[in-house]
Amino acid sequence: MPLSRPRFTQRPEIWLALLALGALIYTLADILAPFVAGLLLAYLGHPLVRRLSTSWFPRPLAALVVVGSFLGLGLGFLVLLFPLLARDLLQLIARLPNTTDAWQAALIPYLPRNLGVDWNTSLSTWRELLQQHLGSISDALQNLLLSARHGGSVLIHLFLTLLLIPVVTFYLLKDWDRLIQALAQKLPPRSADPLRQLAHEIDVVLGQFLRGQILVMTCMATFYGLGLHFTGLSSGLALGITAGLLVFIPYVGVFIGFVLAILTALIQDPSLLLPVCGVFAAGHVLEGSFITPRLVGERIGLHPVMVILALLSFGQLLGFFGIVIALPASAVARILLGHLHLTWWSKETDA
């Protein structure tokens, strides 16, 4: 008897629709980013809105309070850390001349001896070199100006994106129950119960992911903050907390904190480079090998190898946006594939 396949596999329009949806998401990844962020925040804040909503405290007002709380937490984080960063930045700027002199004192004897650089080159020789390369310098300045303009447009786009996130979050929170009810009414009667079960499993795994991610951010912010503070690095506590809270962006967040810490160490005291690198190396091993696989990977049912594969694959396909959504999207895909396998297996058993 030939193998029977589930009915949906025999309908090519379903596969074409899925392919078209995937292509659309890939094309609009940058535009969809604030909406996905707003959806995640709304999903996280929905239980709070439900608890706050009463007959005398309407849901729109509860949604506004929750969005305001999210904004307050973000602004509070900036208000607490910014003075520390600003104070230590001023101290580093004050030390910069002495640091520059120290680097010159170290490099001037080294370069002629090892690289053959002659520091006694006459002023006229430098003037001739400048005239010869004047055109190249002009081109470089023009390219720098174009880059600055492009950077300005990127900053404007980032600002608008950040401005859009709380707006999307508010409207989703305000109409969450209505949207869920509308989706439920669109379900085919025959498939309603299995789809509700599927939605429940996805809801559970996404909740576990968010709770696990918050625990990871807390652990790594504590580790990096205390680690950099005890190295004696200026702004070590603030830089470490920032790097730890940015681990929700795999690799990118820690890399930003690492670069800032290295630059601070170079200006403050180059002897701090080794301890700073040690803190980030230990944190990377701890977070990648133990904390994230245990607190996130196991909660969402992904093997550590699959976690790494998901990050690399989604990053290659969707860039920065793909890295951010890699783990929750992979967890949802695992559930969907599990249900497809059960459907296929039940069809085979019935046959």
SSE inventory with pairings:
Layout: H1 12-27, H2 29-52, H3 59-115, H4 123-132, H5 134-174, H6 176-185, H7 192-230, H8 236-245, H9 252-268, H10 273-297, H11 304-350
Q: Could you write a compact summary of the structure shown?
A:
With 351 residues, the protein is mainly alpha-helical. It has 11 helices and no strands.
Span of the ends, CA to CA: 8 Å
Helix content: over 70%
Q: In angstroms, what is the radius of gyration?
A: 27 Å
Structural class: mainly alpha
The chain-level mean pLDDT equals 75
Strand portion: under 5%
Largest sheet: none
Number of E-type strands: 0
Shape category: globular
- The oligomeric state of the chains shown is single chain
Number of helices: 11
Tally of distinct domains: 2
Helix and strand element order = HHHHHHHHHHH
Q: What do you see in this structure?
A:
The longest helix has 57 residues, at 59-115. It is built from 11 helices and no strands. It folds into 2 domains: 29-97 and 149-186, no CATH class; 197-351. Helix 2 (29-52) runs parallel beside helix 5 (134-174), helix 7 (192-230) packs antiparallel against helix 11 (304-350) and helix 9 runs antiparallel to helix 10. The chain is mostly helical and 351 residues long. Pfam families: AI-2E_transport. It is a multi-pass membrane protein. The chain crosses the membrane at residues 14-41, 61-86, 154-173, 214-233, 245-267, 304-337. This is AI-2E family transporter. InterPro entries: AI-2E-like (IPR002549).
